[in-house]
Amino acid sequence: MAPGKDVSFALLSGADPMTTFEIHPETAADVPALNALSATAFGPGRFARSAYRVREGVAPAAELSLTGWQDGRIRGGVRFTAIRIGDRRGGLLLGPLVVDPSVAGQGCGKALLLEGIARARDAGFAFVLLVGDMPYYGRFGFRPAVPGTIRLPGPVDPARLLVLELAEGSLDGVSGAVSAYAD
Question: pLDDT in tens for each of the 183 residues of the chain?
Fold first, then answer.
């Protein structure tokens, strides 16, 4: 899917079969609704998390910031921020991925994640890093990072530090601190 294009997905069980989930590029007008969803999903403690600290002060990759719509309302969103690990550029930090609790379990997060990863690959990014749950993200190809090789600012449960290679071998020998940058 080319950046800037809209896509639609049929939702999974629990959704009205006549309803589609539309994915659009994020706009400035979407930010308040996305912030409200993030506040509901992650609470005020989200600002202290290591992944948030990496993203702080750096705009997400605009071409990869997506919103999910259903029935004329934002039901979710995903963002990616360009990062380097040590001196290795070409990576992305995934997050936040957020879904309205009223549509949880219907495939909205999956659709946003798959579309975002496809666009990241098409844009030439080499790898994706995130702090998340292996049982959820493992089905999309994420795996635990090699212990002790990737450092985030602040504590992170090593079992939750996950990586996905978009280009084969892109994480070979990678090590160091994670930092965001704007292109």
Answer: 344 556 655 554 455 554 678 999 999 999 888 888 888 776 565 544 677 778 887 889 999 999 999 888 999 999 999 999 999 999 999 988 999 888 888 889 999 999 999 999 999 999 999 999 999 999 999 999 999 999 998 888 989 999 999 999 999 999 999 999 886
- The closest of 11, 20, 105, 125 to 64, measured between CA atoms, is 125
pTM reported for the whole predicted model? 0.84
Report d(CA 67, CA 60) in Å as an integer: 13
First to last CA, the chain: 21
Residue at token pair 């280009």? 167
Q: Count the helix, strand and coil residues of the chain and give each as a percent rounded to the nearest 5.
A: 30, 30, 35
Contact between 51 and 130 under an 8 Å Cβ cutoff? The reply is yes
Structure tokens at 178: 């994670």
Cα three-residue angle 144-146-150, rounded to 5 degrees: 100
